[in-house]
Write a structure and sequence with these properties.
GMP Synthetase, Chain A, domain 3, 4 strands, 49% helix, signal, 4-stranded mixed beta sheet, Lipoprotein, alpha+beta, elongated
């Protein structure tokens, strides 16, 4: 009798565990929704707005950081340094989840000037993640 109850409980636990497992595409979608919900409270130097877009079929997430900086060579150089620091900080805080990158999701991260032109771009994938973890 006890063995039968144990088997039933084990079977129910397995069904619940399998039902709660999420695939990468579901995690990607949830990340984008959650990121955009919390984006209004995001704070960083010169960043006025941040948004995320998910591309499920391409297994890719695009993060955009709009700034109050003018598009010029001096700002491009200065932002290059601060942009890399910001990305490292986001990875350390798990705001850019390493788990998704390790599962094959690519992050295209853009740092935009006040006129929405690109000041800097970084691609985060399994290869480039090593650089940002240094």
């Amino acid at each position: 009798m006890m063995k039968k109850i144990s088997q039933i409980v084990f079977a129910i636990m397995m069904v619940l565990m399998l039902a709660s497992c999420k695939n990468t595409k579901q995690k990607l979608q949830e990340y984008v929704v959650e990121y955009n919900k919390t984006a209004p409270s995001f704070r960083a130097d010169h960043v006025t707005l941040t948004t995320a877009r998910g591309y499920i079929n391409d297994n890719k997430i695009e993060l955009r950081f709009e700034t109050d900086l003018e598009q010029n060579e001096a700002n491009k150089l200065a932002s290059g340094i601060s942009f890399v620091k910001l990305i490292k900080k986001l990875i350390a805080k798990d705001q850019i989840p390493r788990q998704l990158i390790e599962e094959g999701v690519q992050f295209d991260v853009y740092f935009l000037a006040d006129d929405n032109t690109v000041l800097g771009k970084e691609i985060l994938n399994g290869e480039s993640l090593k650089y940002f973890l240094k």
